[in-house]
Amino acid sequence: MKTRIGILGLGGVGGYFGGLLAKAYFESDAIEIVFIARGETQKAIAKNGLKIIADTTEIVAFPSLVSNHPKEIGQLDYLICATKTYDIESSFEIIKNCITLNTIILPLYNGVDATERILNLFPENNVLQGCVYIVSMIESPGVIKKIGHYEKLFFGSKNASVFKLHELQSILENANIESYLVENIEETVWEKFIFISALASATSYLNQNIGGILNNPENKEFYISLLNEITAIAVAKGLKLPNDIVAQTITKLEKSPQDNTSSMHRDVLAGHKTEVHSLTEFVVKEGLKYGVATPVYKKILEKLL
User: Which one Pfam family would you cite for this protein (predicted)?
Assistant: First the structure.
């Protein structure tokens, strides 16, 4: 029996890592990669494959199957999901019959509440925690553009089978994905959340890219205020983060392409639905829950809503 891995959400994250998996296991006797897609994306990939354009390379990957029909998709051993956070519940409704009690689910979302939300839908399943650092986006249906060389995937679980976790790690490594099986995954996910939440909120509110945040003293101070607020919440929750987490986060941003911006800012500019509830409002609500003041986040939320 082949190990069947579904990729739900073929945007910048799911498309990129799913593409690497499909490329590595094309015609494999042991592993089958299934893209769960519909509409123009499904048509483009079925005809031309999924294209990944990087700074100096370009690859085309064909999955074993690209479909949005549960009967065609069949039962899955692993499901890697990377839709927008506002689509979590609706996207799972489509493929719920493909998920068995043995299906291991790896969420790769921008927020930190995805695991809890998926467990509400599938309380008997092993739902891992995970996050990625990458700058990638949809250029057109079936085409993913990746910017820069930095890409890392982190995942882990306190409950899942150690064997299954190491099996997944091996699958990812053999596809040349820089992945890390992390023991203290909740802290790792929150470190990423601190990075992306503050960046998404600041770029969207100020209408500035990364360079516009870092190279303007007033904007940078505004951004650091967000880092301080969200870090205070993490501390109130009892998470053991590095003492210099704010400085580390700024350093990560300084290493990012200066002309790039957050995916939420791109959605704001395009007039699309945004992840403001998961990336901004969530912080405000957690602040109220733990008694931590978040005046800057509140100011942003009022504008973006």
Answer: ApbA_C
